[in-house]
Amino acid sequence: MRVNPKAPTDAPLLTAEQFRGTPEFRKFKGIMRGILAVPKTDLDRMVQIAKKESPRAGNVNAAGRKPKASAGG
Predict the structure, then answer these.
(1) Sign for the pseudo-dihedral over CA of 54, 60, 65, 69
(2) What pLDDT is attached to residue 1?
(3) Alpha helices, H only, the chain
(4) 60-69 burial string, b = 16+ CB within 10 Å, else e?
């Protein structure tokens, strides 16, 4: 049986606050918090490695660099 995704449902619509209060969302939030948690020391180490290994490191003309403001301007 195929379900029409645009068909109305019998369930009432939830407000954002009601949705956040559901047991399903609380469980999801707890799982995601555990997955996304990174200790600060690990994060700092990853940032330093990325800066050292960046192909843009030391290249003033690399994409995404902002031009430096002139001192005399």
Answers:
(1) positive
(2) 54
(3) 16-20, 23-36, 40-53
(4) eeeeeeeeee
Angstrom distance (rounded) from CA 63 to CA 41: 29
Rounded distance between C-alpha atoms, residue 24 and residue 26, angstroms: 6
Instruction: Give the CA distances from residue 19 to residues 5, 56, 69, in Å, rounded to whole numbers and listed in that order.
Output: 20, 44, 48
Share of the chain above pLDDT 90, in %: 37
Distance (Å, rounded) from C-alpha 67 to C-alpha 61? 9
Entry pTM: 0.41
DSSP state for residue 38 in the 8-state scheme: -
Q: Residue 64: which of 49, 53, 54 has the closest Cα? A: 54
